[in-house]
Design a protein that fits this description.
With about 130 residues, the protein is an alpha+beta fold. The chain is about 15% helix and about 30% strand. The protein has two helices and eight strands, in the order E-E-E-H-E-E-E-E-E-H. The protein has helices at about 40-45, 105-115, and strands at about 5-10, 15-20, 30-35, 55, 60-65, 80, 85, 90-95. Strands 6-3-5-4-8 form a five-stranded antiparallel β-sheet, with no helix packed on it. It is globular.
Length: about 130
C-alpha cells in the first residue's frame, strides 16, 4: 500500500508527499486535491472512477495528473497541492484503484466538488478561432 514521506513544511506544519503504490503508472506526474473530511465519503461514492485516495482525520486527498489546476479555479474549501505535497497529518491510503492508473479524472472531481460546495464551475475561457 502507499505510504508518505516527509519533505518539508506546509504552512508551519510538517509536510509530506503522497506516495503512489508500487505498480501504478505516474507518467503524467502527481498533484492532489484535498477536501475536508466531511466531503470524503460523498465524493468517493459519487465519482464514476477513483484513483488513489488518502485520508486523515481532517482531510481526504485525491491524486490527479500534474497541472490539473490549469485554467480551473478549485472552489473553497478544496485545496490543490502541486506535487502531491500536503500537510503531514499522517494520511493513509483508503482507496486503491482497480487498474494501473493512480489518478482520479480531474474534471468529474472538480464538478462534484463544485456541486457539493454550492459553487458554480469556473475556468478560464480560451479564444477559439475559426479556420474559415
Amino acid at each position: 500500500m502507499g505510504s508518505v514521506g516527509a519533505v518539508g513544511t506546509v504552512g508551519g506544519v510538517g509536510a509530506t508527499r503522497l506516495a503512489v503504490p508500487v505498480g501504478l503508472h505516474t507518467g503524467l506526474g502527481c498533484d492532489s486535491v484535498g477536501v475536508p473530511a466531511r466531503f470524503g465519503f460523498k465524493i468517493l461514492s459519487r465519482l464514476p472512477a477513483n484513483g488513489c485516495v488518502y485520508a486523515d482525520a481532517d482531510w481526504w486527498w485525491w491524486l490527479v495528473p500534474s497541472g490539473s489546476d490549469q485554467d480551473l479555479t478549485w472552489p473553497m474549501p478544496a485545496c490543490y497541492a502541486p506535487g502531491a505535497e500536503i500537510p503531514d497529518r499522517r494520511p493513509r491510503l483508503v482507496h486503491h484503484p482497480d487498474g494501473t492508473s493512480p489518478y482520479t479524472p480531474p474534471i468529474p472531481l472538480y464538478l462534484l466538488i463544485c456541486q457539493l460546495t454550492g459553487m458554480a464551475p469556473s475556468w478560464a475561457s480560451s479564444q477559439v478561432r475559426s479556420a474559415y
